[in-house]
């Protein structure tokens, strides 16, 4: 709908227009009529003037109202602009705070994970003895192992000595049995093959008794 159609509709509705346009048209017609009319009675002229003043006051009131509305609209636009800028600023600050909170949350998760790993390691460390105690225990075990080796060597030496002594003893017994002219039963009983463990134990204990005495 163009401007001509709007004006045409206004003229169809009201020959003088509507709203403020009507007031201005009525005021203009009244003024022209007052100017072109020659009043013989001053009261009628005064009434016409008062009527024009009423229309003029209405027009001024409408104009002031329109100015106030326009000024209010401008103020509202400024207020909305300020609100929009403030909202944009708040949005920017909120985004910044969200990013900062995300970083802090990430750091907190890292710290929490490190603490959990630390707790696990601490529990494992507590379950195991201290290094100094472990080292001392290891040294004690080494000393004990060395002592066992020495004891083993001593036992092996004693066993070798007993074997040599037994060999010498058996050789002497065999020589003795060979030199005897008695019956063959004695030679057979005292031979190397029939020499039992009890006799060996007696000889060994005898040798153990002789060693301290010799010392």
TrEMBL record:
InterPro entries membership: THOC7/Mft1 (IPR008501)
Organism expressing this protein natively: Melanaphis sacchari
Name of the protein: THO complex subunit 7
One GO term (biological process): mRNA processing
Keyword annotations from UniProtKB, A to Z: Coiled coil, Nucleus
Compartments reported by the entry: Nucleus
The keyword DNA repair belongs to this UniProt entry's keyword annotation: no
Protein family according to the UniProt entry: Belongs to the THOC7 family.
Keyword presence, Calcium: no
UniProt feature coiled coil, ranges: 84-165
GO CC, any one term: THO complex part of transcription export complex
């Amino acid at each position: 709908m163009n401007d001509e159609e709007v004006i045409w509709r206004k003229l169809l509705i009201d020959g003088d227009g509507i709203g403020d346009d009507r007031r201005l048209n009525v005021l203009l017609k009244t003024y022209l009529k007052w100017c072109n009319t020659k009043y013989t009675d001053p009261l009628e002229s005064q009434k016409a003037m008062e009527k024009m003043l009423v229309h003029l006051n209405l027009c001024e009131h409408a104009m002031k109202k329109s100015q106030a509305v326009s000024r209010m609209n401008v103020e509202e636009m400024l207020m909305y602009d300020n609100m929009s800028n403030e909202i944009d600023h708040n949005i920017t600050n909120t985004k910044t705070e969200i990013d900062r909170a995300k970083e802090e949350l990430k750091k907190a998760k890292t710290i929490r994970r490190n603490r959990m790993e630390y707790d696990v390691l601490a529990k494992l460390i507590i379950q195991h003895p201290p290094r100094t105690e472990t080292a001392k225990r290891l040294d004690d075990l080494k000393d004990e192992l060395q002592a066992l080796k020495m004891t083993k060597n001593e036992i092996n030496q004693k066993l070798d000595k007993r074997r040599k002594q037994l060999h010498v003893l058996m050789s002497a017994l065999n020589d003795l049995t060979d030199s005897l002219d008695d019956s063959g039963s004695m030679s057979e009983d005292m031979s190397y093959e029939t020499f039992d463990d009890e006799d060996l134990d007696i000889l060994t204990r005898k040798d153990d008794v002789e060693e301290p005495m010799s010392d």
